[in-house]
Design brief:
The structure is a homohexamer. Chain A folds into 2 domains: 45 residues, no CATH class; 70 residues, AhpD-like. The relative contact order of chain A is 0.16. The first copy, chain A, is built from 7 helices and no strands. Chain A is mainly α. Chains in contact: A-B, A-C, A-D, A-E, A-F, B-C, B-D, B-E, B-F, C-D, C-E, C-F, D-E, D-F, E-F. At the A-B interface, helix 3, helix 4 and helix 6 of A face helix 3, helix 4 and helix 6 of B.
Chain lengths: 133, 133, 133, 133, 133, 133
């Protein structure tokens, strides 16, 4: 287990309790190295850089995934992550509404669906879904 | 001139001095109503909502446009806007590097090009480009 | 209730009977303002402009959503809307086939799935789905 | 020269005088078969189908390319084509403004740039650009 | 039945036994010509060209669909097709991991889901799904 | 300099002589860590994995970037890279034509433009452009 993997797992646990373990598990059958890369590189090397607060990082990711409209499961997971690091539900909705300007209204509507799922999961401490990268 | 237009223009001026006037001018020949809608709706109704700080809004927009990779002129303009409301240059770069995870490395590389242009324009007080929505 | 909201709701009702009310309802739990913006701005300010027939507007939207491939629920809704303002089923299929040239064949195949759903709903007067923007 | 090629060339000439010849020429150095496929399949098999008016086909294509935001040269060419089959300039602008709802405002702004180029070319009978598919 | 249709059907059968028949069947209710075009043009004219091995063609298609992230059913089908022409499961996973660099990690994660489905179908000789283009 | 960086640089030199040094140089002013990540992670960890031949990796990347249509400079660079590891020019054109089926004809046409640039650069040993990731 590389130092980057440990750092990435710890970072991921701040966003999503047990998220690293679940991600590893979810990819373990056919693509374990993808799970490892997400933790080592995505969280261990990128998210853990000191130059931007975790709150700002989650705002950026929620915005990007909402606007792109091609990553619904990961958007749900990162909205939960955003809530975990202190972005409030009304702020999430503001970000999504703003994304209508850049990704279009359908993308924003679908992101509201993602937010609804994420809000329920966050409130219910339902941590069973794998954390998207 | 609607109240929304006035509010949008004032908001836009916080992000980009004279940006509203330049946007109106840039669209005035064939699509003046698109320029008006961007100011009235985009800035007057969405960006001016109280639920999210302008700094956070600019982080969201820079992230989304970098990840999408289809709006280079608007990305340049919004990086300038982000700098104007207090996002630092190193933070912009962090956001862009993070977007490699979501939009891919080519999108991040092209966003670095946009940042280079925006940094020069911001430092030089070169406000001649129209502000993208 | 703004004048724009009233105009947008009336416009929306031409495309989808009761669509405005369902849209407001669908967004009312966590993002009511997004529902309001879609009606006020999307339908009250954009679709209601006199310069383009509603039939042409629906052709444009069905084409765009089919080619983009990221807005399946909204594509279903707008195909229903297109039928409601006089675009025929064979014309819908023509638009979708043509979109294979621009969005690729998978996008066209998935749009056929959307059309199948929309045709059934339209024939059955099944108006229960929220209208996408 | 297949029957489909002849039919496609004739169709293309209705949209863009000499467009088929220019397209063939533009692709002749390294990808002549792509040029041939666009004419044979795109125009000879798809656009020439009787089920949708050419005017409606051009509305669909302009809408799709504007919303996608990844095909600027082809958007310019198809706006010219739309003008050639009777879509008016104000109608083009309406379509583009509407696409802000689906592809976002930056996509619409960039489509206005395409329209500006296309309007100039159309007025000046400047037919030198290759016709995009 | 055109010569192109016969050639396309035969090609498709190499990738997916009975795939042509299932595709025709799947589109027969509302868009039979789209099914025909996919076989005639997609497989009969493009895939059957001699200049690239079928194995390389499937690598290209799996890569593209994984990176685009908008064609999940077609990605499943083409991963099965890739396996049928000799791309191994570990090679499929390599392609998908590499696509994280270009389409982002969420696209790669969702492509792993597609691979999981395709691997099961391929092993079980479950040929019931229609083949995507 | 990490072991991953060295491995990535060596790999990159197989695709593009001096490519690693140029990439580092190109990013050194404002985003040196992005350049480093592309080499360390993109080439040192992903491309250098033993499970897929370099030729197949380049086919995959050219296909993906052509279909996405948002990474023209990187597409040029990777077409050069594909030529360097043994993909022939006619094979590149086959891949691009095939991508018309998935990303649409405009994406394929723009990829032909990229190929034209790459072919000239490759023939002329013009290695001055930075290598895209």
């Amino acid at each position: 287990m590389s130092e980057r993997f440990v750092r990435g797992s710890e970072l991921l646990d701040q966003i999503h309790t047990g998220g690293g373990a679940r991600l590893v598990e979810a990819m373990s059958d056919i693509a374990p190295d993808l799970g490892r890369f997400i933790i080592e590189f995505g969280f261990g090397e990128v998210y853990s850089r000191p130059g931007l607060r975790l709150r700002d990082r989650q705002i950026a990711t929620v915005a990007a995934l909402a606007a792109m409209g091609t990553a619904q499961p990961q958007l749900v997971a990162h909205i939960e992550g955003a809530l975990a690091v202190g972005v409030t539900k009304p702020e999430i909705i503001e970000i999504i509404i703003q994304m209508a300007l850049y990704g279009g209204f359908p993308a924003a509507m679908n992101a509201v669906d993602a937010a609804r799922q994420a809000f329920v999961a966050f409130d219910g401490q339902d941590d069973s879904a794998p954390l998207g990268s």
